[in-house]
Specification:
- The chain has 158 residues and is of the alpha/beta class.
- 39% of the residues lie in helices and 25% in strands.
- It has helices at residues 8-37, 46-71, 123-128, and strands at 4-6, 72-74, 89-94, 100-106, 117-119, 136-141, 144-155.
């Protein structure tokens, strides 16, 4: 099984979700199911049936997160002043029309397109990896090729 990388911030987010599921959501649903079960005939009790379904979904998510977190490798942000694009970099690029976009290269488990966090496995990130400020990048995409200029590369502490 291949290694999966994640930033410390992304790992903390997954850990917080797991903690919330274990300490808050699951106990609440278990209590709801117990109350619904006390009402009698479970075969026609919609609250009981729905509660059990919710409990299975929570347990499935807990198992998924636990297995995932065991496989993840946390990558600390660089602090050596390097100006090349690697995992965890925040990169600003400019296209042929002068439009600038900023992306943060993260693991596949912490993608957030609205925040500009793209997977290290994405075509954009793959095109940027190893590049430095001032480098031109040719990005191949379904709509055709586009040339980008790397404007800045920075690493933010978490």
């Amino acid at each position: 099984m291949a290694k999966r990388y994640i930033t410390p911030k992304g790992f903390r987010r997954l850990q917080a979700e797991l903690d919330e599921l274990w300490s808050e959501a699951r106990p609440r649903v278990v209590e709801e199911v117990a109350v619904a079960a006390a009402h009698g005939d479970r075969s026609e009790n919609a609250e009981y049936i729905y509660g059990k379904k919710k409990l299975r979904e929570i347990d499935r998510r807990i198992r998924h997160l636990a297995k995932l977190m065991d496989r993840l490798t946390i990558v600390e942000p660089r602090s050596d002043g390097i100006d090349r694009v690697f995992f965890g970099a925040t990169v600003t690029v400019e296209d042929e029309e002068g439009i600038r976009s900023t992306y943060r290269i993260v693991g596949p488990d912490e993608i957030d397109l609205k925040a500009g966090a793209i997977s290290v496995e994405s075509p954009m990130a793959r095109a940027l990896l190893g590049k430095s400020e001032g480098d031109d990048v040719l990005l191949r995409r379904p709509a055709g090729e586009v040339e980008l200029l790397v404007v800045s590369v920075r690493y933010e502490g978490e």
